[in-house]
Amino acid sequence: MGSQPAAGPVAGPSAVWGWSRLEPSLDNGGQPAPCQRSLHVAVVLEDKMYIFGGYDGSNRVNDFYEFDIPTRRWSIVSASGTPPSPRDRHTGVIHGSSFYVFAGFDGAQRVNDFFAFNFGESKWSPVQVLSGVAPSPRHSHAAVVYGSSMFVFGGYDGSYRSDFHEYNFATCGWSLVSAAGRVPRARYRATCVVQGGCMYLFGGHDGTRHLNDVHVFEFEPRVWMTLNTENPAPIPRDSHVSVIHGRSMYVFGGSTGSAMNDFYELRLDTCKWSPVQALGNPPNHRFCHVACVCKDSMLVFGGYDGTNRLNDLLEFKFGADLMCCDIPPSTLVEDLKGLVDNELLSDITFMVEGQPVYAHKILCMRCTYFRAMLTGSMVESRAKEVVLEDVRRPIFLALLQYLYTDEADIALDDAMELFQAADRFGVERLKRICESQMLASINVENAAAIFHAADLHNAKSLREKCLNFLLANFDLVTKSRAFEEMGRTNIELVFEILKMR
């Protein structure tokens, strides 16, 4: 295979893995767990898990819940706009700062509508489709996000399907995925997960029998392959869950004709299956449940045990030593964040917009610009105070926070300015983070401004994706104020766009 899974934690012989039940906290406004349900969806964003929709045994629902993982508090997500109709067997994914819900069964018919919940605005809205044809109305399909696109495989639209569709968030267009290799057989209730540059498809039901085959789709160069695995695989099943952690795919539960609670690991680097040995009481048998990974934990919620719908929340700790005493959570990042603009042990002061910003020369280990400035022959290397021009103080503080902690809290309004600062100081990874933030929020009003800045700062990937969006939405973008401003300052860019029309 051309793309190898990234390295991750490895559980050696001394590692202890284990299950535990998470009881919700009702303190400080915490609410009871969502009602019992199956056929719902779940996603994780930062330290929160979100649950949407499903079937409660009597009705399809469209409630939207948040579980704050550190505090163990459930709450109903407050939202404006029109949410998706009550449904089950839909898919849900995260891209940028939005949660997307696609298709499903509303109790009367299969649907193929597409909705987004913007976390910044707390608002539901239909997803704009400017080109292409959406997949047929269906349920029990699988969906993943890779790069700037959502990929949808299979499902049931009256027939079992093996079609593969892509929705590009930048161009707002649907397309059928053209790929080499042998396409997996038609199926529904399979799982798809992404690791590195590959999507892994496991199991499902083809209308005649349960399946336990594994197929790999390489996004570049877009080719399907059958994965030949070693050791006995899990018995064929559908309605299970699959997640990625480290170098492995984990499969839990599902239906083989009856509910299961077995738990398997597929090492993606060696292609070997093995049952997971774990401490703690394993969850009840179930299928049509959901699972998400947050850091070193897998969270499992709800499902159906063959008799009852469930609403229990379970945690599986990867590699946690359950025999030792409780270990406090790490404070490293917060401690390092506390050093930003802190005079304690500061050995360099930057003057930004006439105000001091206290820093530490250990920045040299994180940024070649500061290394050259503070350790070379430049006059600043001997100065205790360095004046920086052409950067705002809040933007410089955000840059320092990233250099100290490897994390950045990027407001959308500041993303371009922080991108420019990261470019100036040569912080390439922060540039990419800002680029991703801007691509997730591109629209007809700001596309020209982002394109102009990407051209100015030689951000080739951002420039190309913005250009695709401009061409796909030409009539609307050309009426924006940002496009007029771009024409006044760089008419060559306007000519470039017109030539490509």
Overall mean confidence score, pLDDT: 90
Uncertain runs are: 1-16, 320-325
The number of distinct helices, counting runs of at least 4 residues, comes to 10
**Overall geometry:** globular
Output the CATH homologous superfamily of the domain at 332-499.
Answer: Potassium Channel Kv1.1, Chain A
Helical content class? 10-25%
Radius of gyration: 25 Å
Strand content: 25-35%
First CA to last CA: what distance?
A: 38 Å
Oligomer: single chain
CATH architecture assignment name of the domain at 332-499: 2-Layer Sandwich
| Number of extended strands | 28
CATH class of the domain at 332-499: Alpha Beta
Main sheet record: 5 strands, mixed
Protein name: BTB domain-containing protein
Keywords: Kelch repeat, Repeat
Domain BTB: 346-412
Organism: Tribonema minus
What does this protein look like?
This protein has helices spanning 332-337, 368-375, 393-405, 415-425, 428-440, 447-456, 460-472, 474-477, 481-489, 491-499; strands at 18-21, 41-45, 48-55, 60-68, 73-76, 80-81, 91-95, 98-105, 110-118, 123-126, 142-146, 149-156, 160-168, 173-176, 191-195, 198-205, 210-218, 223-226, 241-245, 248-255, 259-267, 272-275, 290-294, 297-304, 309-317, 348-352, 355-359, 385-388. By secondary structure, it is α+β, with helices and mostly antiparallel strands. The chain has a domain at 332-499: Potassium Channel Kv1.1, Chain A. The strands form seven sheets. It has a five-stranded mixed sheet, with no helix packed on it. The protein has a four-stranded antiparallel sheet with strand order 1-25-24-23, with no helix packed on it. It has a four-stranded antiparallel sheet with strand order 2-3-4-5, with no helix packed on it. Strand 19 (241-245) and strand 20 (248-255) form a beta hairpin. The chain is 19% helix and 34% strand. Keywords: Kelch repeat, Repeat.
